[in-house]
């Protein structure tokens, strides 16, 4: 089941509410990425504390390990990974594509060797729907081909992007049929392809809208293309999708991309940056990015971000309201230099909190009709420097 209510709009930006089988999600929203059934480095309790509303699961990886029999035994991913709020799973197509050469694509599906044990595997629209039905995710992504930006050193041509987009459309039909046959009560999203070609994006979008999905994603971006190409597609496509249905921009992006994406009419985002960058000591703050390894942090007593209320920056607030101070940049720099695991843990808490808090501030600005003012202040603050 999926219900989407538009609460407020400001230009192309929207404040909405998405009701799914496992709960309600306020949009615009950032969705933390959980690859192997966990958001790396944080506990489900920390995710709830930072008010994560929906997380991503990974069809491809979970299918291989622990395998569907184990997930089925637990009645789905929610009970297995102890997360009782909404989950969105990707279809596996992109993950196979990321494997690089070890795959063979045909009309039927994708053949590839398991990166876990080398077994010959076959993923099709039908098998992807069957896997995501066992996972029982609230939002299921269609099995698609993520059209590459370049192939063997040449930019994907219009003809190549068309062929790929039309394959994904035929796969969208097969996903819809299989999803209905399985009597899956969750929500299946179509994925718009079309490469960097606006007219192909419009053809893909029109065909998917005809298939009447409850929600839509924009795929085929953030695949190595120049930033201005991604921004061109992000400006072109989202607002052409049905206004009364949720719009998900896959694999995007930096804090600046999220703000620009909301302004272009996007409701949902996912990206590995906050978690992956945290593990590399690359922190996001209100006033710019911070590289923890830099020697200038060696004796700096300040928190990462004095305006941040996360556990790493602010510590915990005692029942009497007194705040047990957070951690200093000096301490975090020390953990990073020693390779201590508490380092990535605290940095992941901060980065995820930063992304989730940014989206919360965006939602509040939309509710107050001052998203434009928020955008101006956001850009000024981020340029200030840490
Ligand atoms: C990073 N850039 C990018 N990601 C894309 C993704 C993946 C989005 N993230 C999913 C999570 C990844 C980690 C595990 C959990 C699921 C894309 N996925 C699909 N199906 N199609 C795309 O065109 C597609 C395009 C994408 N571009
Ligand atoms: Zn913080």
Attribute tags:
20% strand; 386 residues; eight-stranded parallel sheet; 14 helices; binds the ligand CNc1nc2c(CCNCC3CCCCC3)c3nc(N)[nH]c(=O)c3cc2[nH]1; single chain; binds zinc ion; three-stranded antiparallel sheet; 2 domains; alpha/beta
Structure, explained:
Zn(2+) binds at residues 308, 310, 313, 350. Its EC number is 2.4.2.29. InterPro entries: ArchSynthase1/Queuine_TRR, TGT, TGT-like_sf, tRNA_ribo_trans-like. This protein is an alpha/beta fold. It has 2 domains: 2-271, Queuine tRNA-ribosyltransferase-like (TIM Barrel); 278-384, no CATH class. It is built from 14 helices and 20 strands. The chain has helices spanning 44-49, 59-73, 77-81, 93-97, 125-135, 158-181, 198-210, 227-236, 255-263, 273-279, 311-314, 329-338, 342-367, 371-384; strands at residues 2-10, 13-20, 23-27, 29-31, 55-58, 87-90, 103-105, 110-113, 120-123, 139-141, 150-151, 154-155, 187-192, 215-218, 247-249, 268-270, 282-285, 288-291, 316-317, 323-324. The strands form 6 sheets. It has an 8-stranded parallel beta sheet. A 3-stranded antiparallel beta sheet has the order 1-2-3. Strands 7-8-9 form a 3-stranded antiparallel beta sheet. Helix 9 runs parallel beside helix 13 (342-367). The chain is globular and about 60 Å long.
| Share of helix, binned | 40-55%
CATH superfamily heading of the largest domain: Queuine tRNA-ribosyltransferase-like
Main β-sheet, spatial strand arrangement: 4-16-15-14-13-10-6-5
Bound ligands, named by name, code or SMILES: ligand PK2, zinc ion
Task: Summarize this entry quickly.
The chain is an alpha/beta fold and 386 residues long. The chain contains 14 helices and 20 strands.
């Amino acid at each position: 089941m999926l219900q989407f209510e538009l609460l407020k709009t400001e230009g192309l930006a929207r404040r909405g509410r998405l009701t799914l089988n496992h709960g309600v999600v306020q949009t615009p929203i950032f969705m933390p990425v959980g690859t192997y059934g966990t958001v790396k480095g944080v506990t489900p309790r920390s995710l709830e504390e930072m008010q994560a509303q929906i997380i991503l699961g990974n069809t491809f990886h979970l299918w291989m390990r622990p395998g569907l029999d184990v997930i089925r035994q637990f009645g789905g991913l929610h009970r297995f990974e102890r997360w009782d709020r909404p989950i969105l799973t990707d279809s596996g197509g992109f993950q196979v594509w990321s494997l690089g050469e070890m795959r063979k694509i045909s009309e039927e599906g994708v053949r590839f060797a398991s990166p876990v044990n080398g077994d010959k595997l076959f993923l099709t629209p039908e098998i992807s729907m069957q896997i995501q039905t066992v996972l029982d995710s609230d939002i299921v992504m269609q099995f698609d081909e993520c059209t590459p930006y370049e192939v063997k050193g040449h930019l994907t041509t219009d003809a190549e992007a068309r062929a790929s987009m039309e394959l994904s459309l035929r796969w969208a039909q097969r996903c819809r049929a299989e999803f209905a046959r399985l009597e899956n009560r969750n929500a299946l999203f179509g994925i718009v392809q079309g490469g960097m070609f606006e007219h192909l994006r419009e053809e893909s979008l029109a065909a998917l809208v005809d298939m009447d999905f409850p929600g839509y994603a924009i795929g085929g971006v953030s695949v190595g293309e120049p930033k201005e190409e991604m921004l061109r597609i992000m400006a072109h496509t989202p607002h052409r999708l049905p206004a009364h249905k949720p719009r998900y921009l896959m694999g995007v992006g930096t804090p600046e991309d999220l703000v620009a994406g909301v302004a272009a009419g996007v409701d949902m985002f996912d990206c590995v940056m906050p978690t992956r960058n945290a593990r590399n000591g690359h922190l996001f703050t209100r006033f710019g990015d911070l590289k923890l390894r830099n020697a200038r942090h060696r004796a700096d007593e300040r928190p990462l971000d004095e305006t941040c209320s996360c556990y790493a920056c602010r510590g915990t607030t005692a029942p009497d309201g007194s705040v047990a101070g957070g951690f200093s940049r000096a301490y975090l720099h020390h953990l990073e230099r020693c390779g201590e695991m508490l380092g990535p843990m605290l940095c992941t808490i901060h980065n995820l909190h930063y992304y989730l808090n940014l989206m919360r501030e965006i939602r509040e600005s939309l509710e107050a009709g001052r998203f434009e003012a928020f955008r101006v202040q956001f850009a000024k603050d981020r340029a200030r420097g840490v």
